[in-house]
Give the backbone structure.
Amino acid sequence: MPNLEHPAYPAADLLHLEGLVPCRESQVSMLLSIFGERQQFSFPSIFIYGHTSSGKTYVMKTLLTTLQLPHVFVNCVEYFTSRLLLEEILIQLQSCPSGTEQSSPVHCDTLNDFVRLFKQAVASQELQDQTLYIVLDRAEQLREMEANILPAFLRLQELTDRNVTVILLSEIVWELFRPNTGCFEPFTMYFPDYSIGHLQKILSQNHPPEYSADFYAAYINILLGVFYMVCRDLKELRHLAALNFAKYCEPVVRGEANERDTRKLWKNIEPHLKKAMKTVYLREISSSQWERLQHDGEEPGQLKGLSAHTHVELPYYSKFLLIAAYLASYNPVRTDKRFFLKHHGKIRKTNFMKKHEKTSNHLLGPKPFALDRLLAILYSIVDDRVAPTANIFSQITSLVTLQLLSVVGQNDQLDGPRYKCTVSLDFIRAIAR
């Protein structure tokens, strides 16, 4: 018996839709009941939230496309200003519902222009007799735009007097959206994370035709047993499943085991899954490199990756700033004169070596240092004459943004900001080379 039923849509389309959105039938059924029939006015705005890779974008695209509902789909990260966003909605509206691309430019500077042009576009495309859906993906970006954009989208149906529903997709809750001045409250809907059973069902649908469904389902069960505790991302798990399946099949291909010898298959794939555990989300190497690594039986560290060589490309002076920051974090202040001055005079050993300094500073961790000390060490280790320009200070800010340096304390300190170096000794050695 089909899970999706609605009198306004053909049963064949609903059955096809059900096969495309496994484990999301209850959410789709709820959306269909909210949408109602094509000519009915739906709820003015719907807010859908959930963690990343919980199927929000995929379900909305599949639902609107399969049932051929007129819609506009915009990613707010790509169109990051209000003008770009409003113009993109109007451009897509020109091709709705025919689907043919229109090249005519649209200029929309204000929200009043958008409302006027929106009414004209809806009238020209003859969309008055059915609901138009505007889907804004990554809707948390709307909070960075003008203050009137989000409230206007929430009550666009009222502003335009047209049959339109705005759907906001986000990874954060509605309470972080709500303005202090108040606004129209959307209908909120939560997409929960996929459970391990849901992931098993979804990933098992991608089995290769040359192997049985039970064989691939057993492989997915092994994969989830290893990765489920550290990774719930469906896209990442699908990538890992495709990447390691050839290694799982090796005993079967060589004739050393059949598809039911799960113990032999597990012993063959276990060390390779442990290697893959080290590179979850990192993408240090390409898929072809990973396959070659598995074929040759090498260790992941033998390939040139980010963590293998701890190397990133930095501007010229940023490298020296990072080295100076490391020296300032791990060397006591009283050693600066000894290390960085040519004529520092005699330093008595008894005063220099104390009991607590016998412990390695690398075990004690980085110490905070002032900006003046960082620049003083920089000037001493760079051969050229470096002027304290805005370029140098902007590179320090960039190192903080990259989390290679961290700011210690508050920004309103009277004696200036203090920093810590957060990189390892191996990283600094690679930079220094």
